[in-house]
Amino acid sequence: MAPQRTALVTGATSGIGLEVARELVNRGYRVIGSGRNPERLADDERLPGVEYVALDLADRDSIHACTTAIGDVDIVVHNAGESQSGPVEELPDEAVDRLFQTNVFGPVQLTQRLLPHMRGQGYGRVVTVGSMLASFPLAHRGSYCAAKAALKGFALSARQELSPFGVWVSHVEPGSIATGIGTRRTHYIAEGSPYQADYDTMITHLDANEQSGISPATVAKTIVKAIEADPPREFYAVGSNAPLVFALRRLVPRSVVTSLVARRHGLKR
User: Fold this and answer.
1) Exactly one of 29, 52, 123, 144 is catalytic; which is it?
2) How much is the pTM?
3) Number of C-alpha atoms within 13 angstroms, CB side, residue 268?
4) pLDDT at 1 over 70
5) CA-closest candidate to residue 129, choices 106, 111, 151
6) 152 FRET partner, CA 20 to 30 A, in 26, 43, 105, 234?
7) What topology does CATH give the domain 6-264?
8) How confident is the model over 203-256, as pLDDT tens digits?
9) How far is CA 162 from CA 3, 63, 156, 192, 222, in A?
10) E-assigned strand segments in 25-174
11) CA distance 112 to 205
């Protein structure tokens, strides 16, 4: 009989992370779900079968405390992150620093602490959750696009290092997802900004695209597919007509794709 695997799902209190945790519990995994303040969850917000742990990826001490508390895990799903928007010229230094610590450095530091066990036992799964904006950048989303692209780079490089030890890293790039993240996105735009009209147009279209996007449960199924495949693929894209748009990117000039992405968000480029 195969051993019960333990999975850590970051950002498991809402959206994609919540649905991944639900799916894994239903499949018989031991699931540890992280959140910045899990103690504040009401009873009806807690998934039965999930063990909750505090983790703030923007705080390196929190990462250390979390990994010390949970011990060895076999699977980690890096879902937690910040969605940030703002003109490049007006992004505060501290906001960009926090975004990269939360979305890139935090997942890398967390993975580093979990890898010795996975490598030692000859089995492990690391799934990073990115965004199709890393492949199709958008105006006023520069910091977020860059962070997700960096996360993908770490993931695909680490896969080459770790696969000989039975530890497989996969990167999942969702398109527009109806998670309600638009209400939690951080905005940085100065009062009287010359970018205001352009920014407002982009945000309005971005929010509308997300509201009509695929469900978090659909993304969760793709993530679980990556966990259970043997071996998993290195890259999965889901939502926003992914097969079509990635094929289009290979067939037409980059400038055409850039223009199409802008127009989808109400911008003329």
Assistant:
1) 144
2) 0.94
3) 1
4) no
5) 151
6) 26
7) Rossmann fold (3.40.50)
8) 999 999 888 889 999 999 999 999 999 999 999 999 878 888 888 889 999 899
9) 21, 22, 10, 49, 21
10) 30-35, 50-54, 75-78, 84-85, 124-129, 167-174
11) 38
Domain borders along the chain are 6-264
256: Cβ contacts below 8 Å, ≥ 6 apart: none
* C-alpha dihedral (222, 138, 79, 233), degrees to nearest 10: 40
- Of 148, 136, 142, 131, residue with least CA distance to 252: 136
Q: What is the pLDDT of residues 10-33, one digit of tens each?
A: 999 999 999 999 999 999 999 999
Partners of 191 in beta bridges: none
DSSP 8-state secondary structure symbol assigned to residue 14: S
Establish whether 199 is a catalytic residue. no
E-strand ranges in 68-184 read: 75-78, 84-85, 124-129, 167-174
Q: Measured over all CA atoms, what is the biggest interatomic distance in the chain, rounded to whole angstroms?
A: 64
